[in-house]
Write a structure and sequence with these properties.
This protein has about 190 residues and is an all-alpha fold. The protein folds into two domains: about 100 residues, Rna Polymerase Sigma Factor, Chain: A (Orthogonal Bundle); about 80 residues, Arc Repressor Mutant, subunit A. It contains ten helices and no strands. Helix 1 packs across helix 2, helix 2 crosses helix 10 and helix 7 packs across helix 9. It is globular, with a radius of gyration of 17 Å. The protein starts with a helix and ends with a helix.
């Protein structure tokens, strides 16, 4: 989310539908893409995204605008997804998978530490990108610019921007690993 994230969070806490819409618009497609990869059913993935953002709205007054909203959203998303799997886990293989690949904790401090550790690791990996690729990646993910806006700003083709973002994401996935649901959720939402 762009720099004015804190302003949106403050407005959201006051009950601003406009701020909520902005936050929803920024994150909904990323969360949907992640959810559909696991749930395989579009309606289930859409329902999960809605459930996450209903929780954000319902708990808006408790959001601490001095802390990372990304960490907050990561925690809500992770717990919602894990709850979804637990509800759907009618076969022993699903239960075994969840037990093996996740730790069903709801410790807010622990979740924030986990998010911060992933963010630190991601930033270290981002620094390893070639300078132009890193610049394009940061404009895309950190500044929230579209591929077209980046192409205009850097005077390069939109296709070059798309290719560089794709290569950067591939490198990040490889370096961060794919072993945990949490890592994949983090990549989907924040990278």
């Amino acid at each position: 989310m762009p720099k004015e994230e804190k302003d949106y969070i403050i407005e959201l806490k006051k009950g601003s539908f406009s701020a909520f819409d902005h936050i929803f618009s920024f994150y909904k497609e990323r969360l949907y893409a992640f959810a559909i990869g696991y749930l395989k059913v579009s309606e289930d993935a859409q329902e999960l995204v809605q459930e996450v953002f209903v929780k954000v709205w319902e708990n808006r007054e408790t959001i601490d605008e001095t802390r990372s909203f990304n960490s907050y959203l990561f925690t809500i998303s992770k717990n919602t997804i894990l709850n979804y799997f637990r509800k759907r886990a009618t076969e022993q293989s699903y239960i075994d998978y969840i037990k093996q690949h996740t730790h069903l904790t709801y410790n807010k401090a622990e979740d924030e530490l986990e998010y911060e550790a992933l963010l630190k690791k991601a930033n270290t990996v981002i620094e390893q990108l070639p300078s132009r690729q890193k610049e394009i990646y940061r404009l895309s993910r950190e500044k929230g610019l579209s591929n077209e806006e980046i192409a205009r700003k850097l005077r390069i083709s939109k296709k070059t921007v798309e290719n560089q973002v794709t290569l950067a994401m591939k490198f990040l996935r490889e370096q961060l690993g794919r072993e945990k649901l949490y890592v994949l959720l983090f990549i989907a939402l924040f990278l």
